[in-house]
Amino acid sequence: MKKLSADKILHSQGLGTRKQCQYWIKQGEVSINGEIVKDLKQTFDTDDLQFQVFGENYHFYEKIYIALHKPKGYECSHQTQYHLPVFDLLPEHFIQRGIQSVGRLDQDTSGLLLLSDDGQFLHRLTHPKKHIKKYYRVDCRDVIDDEQIAKLQQGVTLHNEKGIFCALDVEQLGKSQLRFAIEQGVFHQVKRMMHAVNNDVVALHREQIGQLNLAQLELDEREWCYLTPADLEKLQFVEQ
Predict the structure, then answer these.
(1) pTM of this prediction?
(2) How far apart are CA 86 and CA 162, in angstroms?
(3) Which one of the listed residues 7, 106, 117, 231 is annotated catalytic?
């Protein structure tokens, strides 16, 4: 088990600089496991650690894994130009500890977005060799016919991209609506795949990553939750 001093605990959680955290401790504003911290040199077991700063409760997380129900109108970037950053929907201390999105959803795309400050986790979920399926509900401008579905399943080429891009596990939900998965994650991939079969996307929603389904998380738009160990197990890595 890792043991840390109180100021290192607060700093690791993105709550302030070491100097700020030390000042709060000296002022009696920090409690760990229900007791006010008085000794800056005292260390604490961080396993399942509960602590309070200015009366607000926190749980210690060595790394954080977050699911967010992203609404339209937000960009997956810290430096946005035309829309609000998706990070505005999260607590400030998440930002301070360096949380990043796992891949990106376009500003006009809604649905399941994962975020973490664990670099290895980010790499595993975004590396093309891991073949993690991402499922989308796709609303199209025109009626989708069998020929278009067949072409998507066989795979299409995309301008300036290498390889073939296939739609997996295709379901037709309505005359102009599909649900299918992709394994890659190139720029505007789903939209470009539909355009390649002479149709255009008018609404796009990511429902699932691996076996982790947004509906099962029961998050309304703009809401987020911590991923449990059971949730993380649903993010299957199949390296080829």
Answers:
(1) 0.92
(2) 30
(3) 106
